[in-house]
Each structure stands twice: as C-alpha cells, then as structure tokens.
Design brief:
Butyryl-CoA Dehydrogenase, subunit A, domain 2, 381 residues, 4-stranded antiparallel beta sheet, 4-stranded mixed beta sheet, alpha+beta, Butyryl-Coa Dehydrogenase, subunit A, domain 1, Butyryl-CoA Dehydrogenase, subunit A, domain 3
Length: 381
C-alpha cells in the first residue's frame, strides 16, 4: 500500500483540523509549559470542543470516525508536531484509560463517564504499573476485597500518566488468586475516601506530562464500578496494550521525523569551511541513512495498523513495530543532537527535547525486553 492508500480525503481533513489546533492552541505556549512541567487543564476542554479527543469513538458519546483507525493515526501524528511528547501523552491518556470503560463497563457508568471524558470536562487515566513490578502485570499486588456492595481496595500504583489531574482512573486490582486469572478492572473516581494522589514525579523527559503515584488505603469502591467480569481484567489489559503499543510506535516514528526535519534544516543553513554542512558527503550520507531507516519503520507500523483496522491479530508484529520504531527514534534523535553539535545540547533546541522525550518510548507500554519475550513466545519459543 502507498501512503495514499492508508489515508483518504477524510483523513486529510482530520490532519488539517488537528494541525490548525496545534498551531493555534499548543505551539504558542508549549515551550513555557515544558519548563513549567504542566500544560493548562483548559487544553483538554479545547481539544474536546474541537472534536480531537473524540476521534475514533462512537458518535452517541460525542465521538467521530468510530472504528477508523487511520483517523486516529493521523490525529496522533499531527499532535506530535507540537514537539512535546509529554503533552501528547497527557492529552491522550484517555486513549489507554477509556477503552475498557467503553467496552465493558455497566451502561450507567459508561454513559456517564465516556461523554464527560470525550468533551474534555473530565480527565481519564489508566493505573496498572506498581512499585513492585512494572511490566510484570500478572503479579500485581493491589488488592480489592468484596464487602457487600463495595470493594475495599488497598495498594499503590506508580508512573501513572495524568495521575495528578485525572478525575477517573481505570485501575487494575487483584480480586482473586495469584497470576493473571485473579485480576479485575475497577473505575475509581478522584475524591473517593481512602484514595490519595502523591506528588508529581520529576522525569528525564515528558516534562509537560503529569506523572504520579496513587495510594489506596481501604478505599471503598462500588461493585457497580467493576469493568467487565470479575477476575477477567487481564484480557482487557492485554487487548488495551496492542493499541497502546501502536500509539507508542507512532510517537517514536514522529519523534524521528521531527529529528530528521530539524537535521535537514540545520544541514542546509549551517555553513562550515565556506559551504552548507549538508554538502559534505559524510553528513549527506548520514541523513540519507536516517531517512531510509525512518521510512522502513513507518511503513512497517502502518502495515500493522492496516491489519489491526480489519480485525487481524498482530500481537507479534505490533511488538516488533514498537521495537523497530523506538530503535530508529533512538538513533535519529542521537544523530540529530550530534549533527547540531553544541546547539543540539541546548534547551532552546527542539532536538534536545526530542532526545530526552524519546527515551521513555522503549520502556512504556511494555519494555523492549518484554516485547522480545512476546515475539519469541509467538514464534513458539
């Protein structure tokens, strides 16, 4: 398939709309928000009003382009043009927290929560990772014990994107025995007695994304907030991971794209020994290799998205795509900083931020090592 075969005219309209939103509402403030370590909560409402948060979700809840995965791809790519992975991750935390609610929550809960989140009036987060083990989801420790018409939840979560400001949290808890068969999902709301949020965590990159620890101390959650069947949450988490890994691959490819664009601009404008540095063969060939690696990674990612869009299982391939994309982004952001030299090391340079922000992409959503375990298992090893 060519680029045009993945994206049609409606996707171009999505791109144009999101691009205008980024230019109008994000680019003027993004550098200040990065330094401040957060972006205005009002941006969620603006993105909701512009229809951006609802892309890919059902119209009856305030969404549009339901089931159109490449509309979502186009949205993700255009948002990343703001140059802040943290802002995109924070604004998009609904895409990992909301799908289980949409698919499996009781109608009364779903019908209340989903429209509020898609409109940007409320913020959604996913809470799976724990201090005792990041990628080892099957052995999570947060316990939920049934007590009449409530669960009593005790435990903690960490590295939660939008954790400080979220209103709703899709939380993975243990309701049964050990292993994956004892895990459930609960919708827990900000302000629930026994639930508290820790201080914002300071990170290497993604500065504009609020990241937090969550604490549950005998937190009473209504049984009606159970998402799906009890002890069946692991399957929901794994299904969610496939979309998250696609999203991270897209972010990595766009991080690499921005790094390449910055490198090309610098190579054309910067002069040394009387001519643009892009005229030197060593740099010309490096840029050619950067472009080649990015093109291969992007095409492979799009191919897996196309298969996902028609319902095919790509457990192995999307893990491969995430690893390939993050490897390419590692190299291109490194090369961009090297090519720009001293300017590439300055905070005023976009490539400096891209280099920092990129590092989380091969860790989040399942580390590179976990991806290789999944690939090997799918190969029968």
């Amino acid at each position: 398939m060519s680029f045009q075969e993945y994206f049609d005219d409606s996707h171009q309209l999505v791109r144009d709309s999101v691009r205008r939103f980024v230019e109008r509402e994000i680019l003027p403030g993004v550098d200040a928000w990065e330094e401040a370590g957060e972006f205005p909560r009002e941006l969620y409402r603006k993105a909701g009003a512009a229809g951006i948060l609802g892309i890919g979700y059902p119209e009856r809840f305030g969404g549009s382009h339901e089931g159109d995965l490449f509309a979502k791809v186009a949205t993700s790519e255009e948002l990343m043009r703001c140059g802040s992975g943290g802002l995109v991750a924070g604004l998009g935390s609904l895409d990992i927290g909301l799908p289980p609610v949409l698919k499996w929550a009781k109608p009364a809960l779903r019908d209340r929560v989903v429209p509020e989140v898609l409109s940007g009036q409320r913020i959604m987060a996913l809470a799976v990772t724990e201090p005792s083990g990041g990628s080892d989801v099957a052995n999570l420790k947060t316990r939920a014990v049934r007590d009449g018409d409530h669960y009593r939840v005790t435990g903690s979560k960490t590295f939660i994107t939008s954790g400080v400001r979220a209103d709703y949290y899709t939380v993975a808890v243990r309701t049964g025995g050990e292993g994956f068969a004892g895990i459930s999902l609960l919708l827990i709301e900000k302000g629930t007695p026994g639930f508290s949020v820790g201080r914002p965590l300071k990170k290497m990159g993604w500065w504009a994304s609020d990241t937090a620890e969550l604490f549950f101390d005998d937190c009473r959650v209504p049984v009606d907030n159970l998402i799906g069947a009890e002890n069946m949450g692991f399957a929901g988490i794994m299904a969610n991971f496939q979309s998250e890994r696609l999203s991270l691959a897209l972010m990595a490819n766009m991080t690499a794209q921005l790094a390449l664009e910055q490198s090309l601009n610098w190579a054309r404008e910067r002069e040394a020994f009387g001519k643009p540095i892009g005229k030197f063969q060593v740099l010309k060939h490096r840029l050619a290799e950067m472009a080649t690696q990015l093109e291969m990674s992007r095409e492979f990612t799009y191919r897996q998205a196309a298969k996902m869009a028609v319902g095919k299982s790509v457990i192995k391939e999307i893990s491969m795509a995430k690893n390939v994309a993050t490897d390419v982004a590692d190299k291109l952001t490194y090369d961009a900083v090297q090519l720009l030299g001293g300017m590439g090391y300055m905070r005023e340079s976009l490539v400096e931020r891209l280099y920092r922000d990129n590092r989380i992409l091969s860790i989040g959503g399942g580390s590179r090592e976990i991806m290789n375990e999944i690939i090997a298992k799918q190969m029968g090893l």
